[in-house]
Structures are given as C-alpha cells and as structure tokens.
Amino acid sequence: MSRSGPVLAWETLLDLGPGPAPLRDRLERAIREAVRSGRLPPGADLPPSRTLAETLGISRWVATETYGQLVAEGFLEAKVGSGTRVPAGRRHPLAPGAHDVRTVDREPAVVPLRAEYRRPRFDLGPGVPDLRHVPRARWAGAVRRALDRLPDAEFTVVDRLGHPLARTAVADYLSRSRRVNAAPDDVVITHGATDAMVGVAAGLRAAGHTALLVEDPSWSRLREIAATAGLTPVPVRVDASGVDVDAMIDAARRTGARAALITPAHQFPLGAALSPARREAIVRWAREVDGVLIEDDYDAEFRYDRRPIAALQGLAPEHVVLVGSLSKSMAQAFGLGWAVMPRALRERVPLADRARPSTLDQVALAEFITAGDLERHLRAARGRFRRRRATLLAALERELPGLAVTGIAAGMHAVLDLPPGIDAGAVRRAAADAEIAVSELTGYRASGATPNVEALVIGYGNLSDALIDEAVARLAGVIRSLA
Q1: What gap in Å lies between CA 123 and CA 463, rounded to an integer?
Q2: Predicted pLDDT of residue 8
C-alpha cells in the first residue's frame, strides 16, 4: 500500500463499531485489529489525521491522540515528512504467526512460564476485577514514556519510600479523587495492600502495640499478616452501618488495643459503608487514645449511586494510614500500591523497610496517572460494573425470588442470603461441579462468636455480561437441588 496507490476506504477498513467506549479507544482497537489481521501489512501508510477524521466522521483530536498513543507504544511509527505507518522490515508482534519461529528470523519460540491458569467459566468469585479490560495498551505507553524520561543514573537508584514522581502523582490523585490530606513525602509506594500491611503491622509491633481490632467478618489475609507480626487480632462485629464502633471501643478497653484495621468505603464482605456518625466516633476514639487506624481503601473507586465518599484519612491524617493499590481497580499482576502515612505518624509507627517496586514500574505509574489514563480506566470500569450489577440483581430476582441481596451499590460483589436449611458450603461445592465459582460468607469470619449466617458472596467483576443470566440460572438450579 504505497503513497501513490489508490485511496483506501478507511470507513470500511477500520470498523469503529457501536458501543459506550470512547471514540479514541474504539479507533485504537480498530487500528490494532487491522494490523493484527494483516489488512494493514508491514510498511503500510496511514492517512494524515485530518483525512482520517474527515473520512470516519470523527474529530481530528481523536485521530491525532490515537496516532500519538500507538506511536508512543511502538505499534506505529512516525517520521517528520513521512507521515504515520506500520513498522516495516519485520513482522508486527501482533500479526498472525508473529511468534512462529518458521516465519520470524532468528527469534526463539515463545515458551510459557507455566500452564495458563483457567478460571471457571461462570466466575462469581469476589475480589477479581474485569480481566478482559486490563488497560494493556495505555500501560505499555506509560512504560515507554517512563523509559524515555528516566535519566541513566536513576536506573541504579531505588528510593527508600518510593520514586518522587510516583509519590507526587499518587498524592495528587488521592487529593482530588479521595480528598486525602497528604503531601508527596507522606506517600510510600508499595507492591500492594498486602505488602503495605506487612510494613505497617511490623511498625505497630515495634511501637509497642500488641493487639489489632479487626472487622468480623473480613478478608482473612490482612488478619493473618497482623498475627504473624505479633499482633493479636481482636474481632469486632459489622452490621449494615459498617463496623460497630461502640463494640470496638469496648473491645479496645478490654484488650488495650489502640490500633484498628477498617474498610470504611465498602466493607468486605458485607458491602456496607461506614455511617457518618460512626466515622466521627472512630476518629474521636483514635484521637482520645492516640491510636492508629489502618484504612483499607477497598473498592473505594467503585460507587454507583453517588460519587465515591471521601477517605477517612482526610478527617485525621495524624492517626490514619491509608492503604490502596491497583489490584482491584486494574489487576493484581501490576504489583503496585501505596500507603499514605504522614511523617509524624511514621515517627510513632516506624514503617518496616521493604523492597520497593522497580523504579521503572513506579515512574510508569506516575506517567499513567498524570496522563489521566487511570481515571479514564476507572470511569469506563464504573459504567461496566454499574450495568453488570443491575443485570445480576435482575437475574437473581427472577431466578431466586424472595432471597435477600444485601450490600450498597458499590464494588464488585453482593451478598445473597440462602433459604433456611441450606448450607452455604454445600452450595459452593455443588456449584464448583457446575463450573461456577462462588464463596460462602462464613469463610470470612474472624471468630466463632460471629453469627453463622448462611449466605453467598457473589462477585461480578470478572463475569462476562453475556454469561450473567446463565450463571444465575445455574446457581439457582444448584440451590433448588439442595433444598
């Protein structure tokens, strides 16, 4: 396809297709597909952005931004005076057969590190985001920009608390999205929430703490980390208004605990938000006892009935460690997160030194945030999850009428009460035989004192929209078969 050749009908070559995704994303996807399929072969020229925009009936800005993104990733190339084209002289990495050693000169065969893990077809397990929409291209662009930006000397330097660019980007993002009160120096870059908890728990133990108040039920992994660090977990019941702060204060008096691990934005697994009155009460308690609140910002980005509520940290920065990550908003594989911990708090609770993520990953995170790509991804994800949740609730009402579904309109899971006499463990095991992954509520209990409520925790983050009705129908069949 040379410049002197015929003008191609780009409106048919690039099918943008309908859908809620932004035009820029749809144009990127169409160009990638055209290259992958061979309709745009190596060396092929693309039209000037103005021509492409006029042909497709889109704005020139969309065309220019798309070209810029794909060039930044190395997917396309652009030279002054030569326009934009598909790289020539080699098979494109996404083209058919590009990884076949018979067609790629002197390149080794691609050997997987291990067999691919296969999740169940009907994935109703909680805690997994939509893996089909991981922002691979935008992240690749952020990595490429980070490589271009990093000076040679910084490839040997790893800051003890994290790269300044990443800490600044995270502080700015949390300030505008979660109303967090933090300067860049208050941010520590981590490998994720679990990694942050290891450092904070060790710091609490070093500062003389011996017990940690925890929500019951809650995610067991963070409780286990606290116990390993030498902190005794003290369970506190949770209800529809979040953790019971009065019960928490009573437990603190009995045990001497002055630290608590809480999820105010969206409690896991019950799906409650901490009420305003309890938010004020827990902050007042932390100030009175000079305590420490570890705020796990779980699912904070995903609220569907209103704007996400502000982080508790903004009410008492001197007493709150805010922990967050990309694990639920994007995917666990990124291995990136943060802990917001002002200097005065770090002096009282010395954060344990741990290996930080690579400098390249940290600067890529900074590029990803400052370019607006994280917030674009979250806006799109919120729209998908809002629609998916509505579809799931409608299917549950249709297939299992009368069973209560609880949890606020947020996050990626809901709780389904089971009929009297039905054992949740039996449902989980029978569902697995029907290719359905689902969790039982009792599996998250922190103590035997918590009422043994027979209910399922149903996730919809990684469930294909097309499979929701069938998944719920199959689950209903399993429940009815055990009645």
Answers
A1: 5
A2: 54
Instruction: Judge if 353 and 441 occupy the same domain.
Output: no
If 0-12 CB within 10 Å is exposed, 13-18 middle and 19+ buried, where does residue 88 land? Answer: exposed
Inside any domain, residue 322: yes
Query: Confidence class of residue 207 from pLDDT cuts 50, 70 and 90?
Result: very high
Q: Which residue has the tokens 């630290």?
A: 259
For residue 218, which phi and psi values (nearest 5 degrees)? -165, 175
Which of 4-13, 24-33, 53-62, 91-100 comes out lowest in average pLDDT?
Answer: 91-100
pLDDT of residue 417: 96
Which CATH number goes with the domain that contains 416? Answer: 3.90.1150.10
CB 414 within 8 A of CB 389: yes
The larger pLDDT score, comparing residue 234 to residue 353, is at: 234
CB burial readout 254-291, b (16+ within 10 A) else e: eeebbbbbbbbbbbbbbbbbbbeebbebbbebbeebeb
Domain that holds residue 30: 1-111
Q: How many residues does the chain have?
A: 483
CATH number of 336's domain: 3.40.640.10
Judged by DSSP in three states, 196 sits in helix
CB 163 within 8 A of CB 363: yes
Tell how far CA 378 is from the center of its chain: 9
Residues with Cβ < 8 Å from 298, sequence gap 6 or more?
193, 219, 263, 265, 266, 267, 268, 328, 411
Q: Which of 57, 54, 50, 39 is nearest to 84 (CA)?
A: 50
Asked whether residue 117 carries a pLDDT value surpassing 80, the answer given is no
Alpha-carbon distance 379 to 387, whole Å? 13
Domain harbouring 33, CATH code:
1.10.10.10
| pLDDT band with cut points at 50, 70 and 90 for residue 375 | very high
Q: How confident is the model at residue 451 (pLDDT cuts 50, 70, 90)?
A: low
Question: Tokens at residue 17, please?
Answer: 């297709």
- Report how far apart, in Å, the C-alpha atoms of 58 and of each of 85, 202, 262 are: 20, 55, 47
pLDDT digits (tens, 9 = 90+) for 406-423: 999 999 999 999 999 999
Would you tell me how many other CB atoms lie within 10 Å of the CB of residue 96? Answer: 12
Element at 123 (helix H, strand E): strand 122-123
Position 123 in a domain: no
Residues 62-77: pLDDT tens digits? 888 888 777 766 678 8
